[in-house]
Specification:
about 140 residues; alpha+beta; 4 strands; about 45% helix; globular
Length: about 140
C-alpha cells in the first residue's frame, strides 16, 4: 500500500481474519435469531464453508468484496504496489471459489453467497434475511 514498507504491509495483511469475521458473525446472529441452526467451517465439505445448514443441504459463503472480487463493488480495489502479484492472487481466489461451488453442487449441496458490502446497515441485514428465506423455500 502507498508509502508502506513491505514489512508493515505483510504485518497488516497477515492479521486479516479468515474466520469469525464481522460479516460472518452478523449473518450467524441473524440466522440463529430466526430459528436456523447451523455448523461453521465444516472441514468435510469442499471449501470449508463459512456456514452449513444441514437441514436444508445448504452452505453459505460470507465473502469479503476485496478478496473474492465482488463485481461492480467499490471495495474491489487493487493495491497500487505489486499489481502482478495481486492480480494473480485475486484470479486464484475467484477460480477456487468457482471450483468449490462446482464440487458442492456435484455432491448435492446448494450454495448461497453473501457479500460483505451487503451487510453494512440494518436494512441490508433485513434484505439478506428475506432473500435467504426465499432461497430456502425455492430449493
Amino acid at each position: 500500500f502507498m508509502g508502506e514498507s513491505a514489512e508493515i504491509t505483510h504485518k497488516r495483511l497477515s492479521s486479516v481474519r479468515s474466520n469469525n469475521t464481522k460479516p460472518e458473525i452478523i449473518v450467524r446472529k441473524l440466522l440463529h435469531a430466526n430459528g436456523f441452526r447451523f455448523r461453521i467451517n465444516r472441514k468435510d465439505l469442499p471449501g470449508k464453508p463459512d456456514i452449513v445448514l444441514p437441514k436444508y443441504n445448504t452452505v453459505i459463503f460470507v465473502h469479503g468484496c476485496f478478496w473474492h472480487r465482488h463485481e461492480g463493488c467499490k471495495y474491489k480495489s487493487i493495491p497500487k504496489k505489486n499489481k502482478a502479484f495481486w492480480n494473480a492472487k485475486f484470479k486464484a481466489n475467484v477460480k477456487r471459489d468457482i471450483e468449490v461451488i462446482s464440487q458442492l453442487e456435484r455432491i448435492g449441496w446448494k450454495h448461497y453467497t453473501v457479500w460483505e458490502c451487503g451487510l453494512n446497515t440494518n436494512e441490508d441485514a433485513d434484505n439478506f434475511l428475506g432473500t435467504f428465506k426465499s432461497f430456502i423455500k425455492q430449493t
